[in-house]
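3.2 Worked example (two chains)
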Amino acid sequence: MIMLIISAVLAVLYVGAAIWHGRKLPDSVSAMVYLLPRAGQWLWTLWLWAVAFLILPSLMDALPESWTCVGFLTIAGLLFSGAMPLVKNEANTLHYVFAIAAGILSQVCVLLINPEWFGAWMLFLFLMGSPYVQPWGELGKTMKGKGVFTAECVCWLTLTGSLFTT
C-alpha cells in the first residue's frame, strides 16, 4: 500500500507541476515531456517508470490470479511508452500503440478489481461532451482539445481508486 501511495503522490505532483509550469493543461501525459529541455527529457521517462513500477505490486495483489497477465501487460505498456517518449516532428506510432493499450488494459483491470470506479467516466463525459461546460467561458476553453489528457487522467483515477478501495 505504501508503494501505491508513493506512486499516486508522484503522479499528482508531476502532473501538477507540469500544469503549473505550462500554465495550461497538457494535450496528453506524453506531451508533458516537451516541458523539459531536450537534455532533461529522460526525467519524464524516469517519472513514468517510477509511477508504473510502484503500482505493480498492488495491481498484482488485487487482480484474480488467472488475470495477473492483464496487470503485467498494463504496466508493460506504460514502460514501453516511457521508453519511447514523443519526439517532435517524428512518427510516434509505437508510443501511441503502447499508451493506448495500457489505457485500455488498465480499464480491464478496473473491471476485474472494482467496476464501481467506472462511474468516474461520468466526469469525462461531463467535461468533454456537456453543453454546460462549453459556455462556461474559461473552463470550456481550458477543456477544448484536452480529451486525451482527460481520458488518461480518468484511466489513472479509476485504476488507482480501485486499488485503494480493494
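3.2.1 Second chain
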Amino acid sequence: MIIFYNKKTRKIVGTVEGRVHDDDMIKNSMIKPSNVKKADIGKYVVPFRTDYKIIEEPIIEKRIVDKKTLRVEDVVVGKKKVKVSAGMSPHVPFADLILDFEKGRKSIYGYKAKLGKKGEVIGFTK
C-alpha cells in the first residue's frame, strides 16, 4: 500500500492498494488534489514482510512394487519439515490499523499522518 498525504495538513489524499509494487510504481506514482502543489504531497510506502510457517511434507520415492511386471509406484518413506510462505503482514508498529484500512473496517480518509521529527510517517491519528 502506498499512502499519499498533504505535508502541511497531514490529511490523507489517496492510496494505491496492494502489498507488492515494482520499483517503477513506487518511484513514479502520485495522487494529489488539483489545488495542491506536488512538493506538498508526501508519499509513504507501507513495508510488508513475508510470514512463514513450517509444514510437514511427505518424502516420496519410486519403488518397484511388483518384480514380475516391474510396476513402479510412489511410496511415502518419511516426512520432512518445510518452511513455506503464509502470506504477508505490515512490518510497522501500527500494523493492525493498516490491516483495518486494507479490509475496509476503517476509512483511511478519516485519519491524518503522524510525522516524526525528520518528517517520516510514524503512525496515523484520527
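3.3 Remarks
Residues 89 and 95 are 8 Å apart (CA to CA).
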